[in-house]
């Protein structure tokens, strides 16, 4: 049952069982909605996503008018699912996680996006282009700052969301 030496598949079985319970709950909600005199798809949608409404990064992705590939890359980054070398080493897909660009430290999200001189320069240039005086501090701090600033409305904040997604994609 092991695909990679030392890898346990028990987490797969646990997740399948969780999904099985979720499917049963959705079937019950579906039957309840079908028994009503008038079916509303919005009610079914609300039943399907009721537990998944509140995520920290929804403001950054919602109504972001960037290319789909940039939005997907940003979504992966928000989930911590980008294929950085430190992540691939944890899954035993590779053995060496040293960054190819600097050849000094392990490649992680923070390192790739903020600690490398060239990528840090991209972030600074993006912020300067938007007339924002801010020193990039790392993914968690930048994510929190972008999330707080994009909850408001306005064309500048729309551009901030777009610039963030496109910068992530280009890096």
Descriptive account of the structure:
- With 171 residues, this protein is mostly helical.
- Helix content is 61%, strand content 0%.
- It has helices at 10-35, 41-49, 58-61, 68-79, 85-90, 109-115, 117-129, 139-149, 155-170.
- α1 (10-35) runs antiparallel to α2 (41-49) and α6 crosses α7.
- The radius of gyration is 21 Å and the shape is flat.
- The mean pLDDT is 83.
Would you summarize the structure shown here?
The chain is mostly helical. The protein has helices spanning 10-35, 41-49, 58-61, 68-79, 85-90, 109-115, 117-129, 139-149, 155-170.
Task: Considering the chains and any ligands shown, give keywords for the structure.
9 helices; about 60% helix; flat; mainly alpha; single chain; about 170 residues
Strand content: under 5%
Biggest β-sheet description: none
Q: Number of helix segments?
A: 9
Encode the helix/strand succession as letters. HHHHHHHHH
Task: Using the CA coordinates, give the radius of gyration.
Answer: 21 Å
| Percentage of residues assigned to helices | 55-70%
Overall mean pLDDT score? 83
Low-confidence segments = none
Protein structure class: mainly alpha
Shape: flat
DSSP summary, beta strand count: 0
